[in-house]
Amino acid sequence: MPDVIINKNRFYNPVDYILRQIGGTWKAPVLWRLKAKTLRYSELEKDIPHISQKMLTKTLKELESDGIILKKTYASVPPRTEYSLTAKGKKIITLVATIRTTGLELMKDEGIDYEALIKEEKKNAVKK
To answer: Can you give the pTM of this predicted structure?
Structure first.
């Protein structure tokens, strides 16, 4: 297979290319939350447990530079920034959905009901 160089990055095959764009711990969760609506930075930060401000900022910059999300800044006081999926991002969401579904199925095979864990976590958060 031929190597492909895009923006000074070498890719060995198409799978390598897409995984570098959506891989890592935080890209898929950010994309998943943007699948249906535009969100502000603070909304993403609140909705993604365990992500630091540094990692959220880095992830958003990478997704934006890859043309997967669109960042729109409004000149208001305080400044307001919103993030949404681009056409490329909407294509990628179908892949993220497939990966998520497969992950849920494999977790269930291991005896883990992830969706039940999320419901329980939300229920406990309401009690606090």
So the answer is: 0.84
Q: Which two tokens stand for residue 33?
A: 């939350």
pLDDT digits (tens, 9 = 90+) for 5-23: 887 888 888 888 898 889 9
Q: Could you report how far apart the first and last alpha carbons of the chain are, in Å?
A: 55
Q: Which domains does the chain have, with CATH numbers?
A: 4-127 (1.10.10.10)
Per-residue burial over 88-114, b = 16 or more CB atoms within 10 Å of its CB, e = otherwise: ebeebbeebeeeeeeeeeeeeeeeeee
The answer to whether 114 and 107 have CB atoms below 8 angstroms apart is yes
